[in-house]
Amino acid sequence: MSVCYRHPNRETGVSCSSCGRPICPDCMTPTPVGMRCPECARDRTKVKRMPNRPSAPVVTQILIAINVIAFLAEVGTGTGIGGVSAGHVGTLYLKGVLYGPFITQSHEYYRLVTAAFLHDGILHIAFNMWFLFIIGSMLEPAIGRVNYVAVYAASLLTGSFGALLFSPSLPSLGASGALFGLLGALMVVSHYRGISIWKNGLALTLIINIVFSLTIADVSIGAHIGGFVGGVICGWLIVELGERRNLRTVALAGCAVVGVIGVAAAIAVAGSHGLAPNGITI
User: Which of 9, 23, 41, 146 has CA atoms 20 to 30 A from the CA of 125?
Assistant: First the structure.
């Protein structure tokens, strides 16, 4: 028979539900999770209630719809369904693609946003929308729709900065910068909530995509890195400020600042070289 850790002359068959030390009746403190010793009773675990989150990824579905509509408009204005690499460059592509000289010389800053809703062919958009559905369906219910939109927007803009930083003289398009941002934010949220990013597959997903980005031609590694960094920062702001300290407005303001910095940095690094006829990075 064990003896009480505070009263060695008293035998007991009860242990603290927190630390496991044997305790006698005089040392027992009833709690909702069992008997605890005096020390553990004074250091009870604080229970934090998370706000109710919408379960349906409505924003993710809307983003997918916008991207699909934009792709159909691309095809309808002359871009081949297989992409511009086949030599079919349409009007919408030319008007919306991200290209440094058009930003610095023509001040077409809207391209920092529009390029993220255009894609280079059916395979490009199919892969990106599948990725958006998988990651978005996990992240949107976890952090709420407003926070989710903030992460997507900020990551989109930092992704545009990354694309211009690495390849200012090449046209670039695709949602992958924003998608890498969602992945980065989801990894941060998972970590803060005690979910292993190795067990849930997020770390492996990141590694596979990094290898893909480095080995496949015409993939904008800059957009991926820029978007991922922006998403990680926004994810940290949301969980650390918005959830842990109940400073939701401050967290959203921080995400907005990340986006503004992305815009300013993108304009600063935008190139001024000639346009490659069919050059494109995705």
Answer: 146
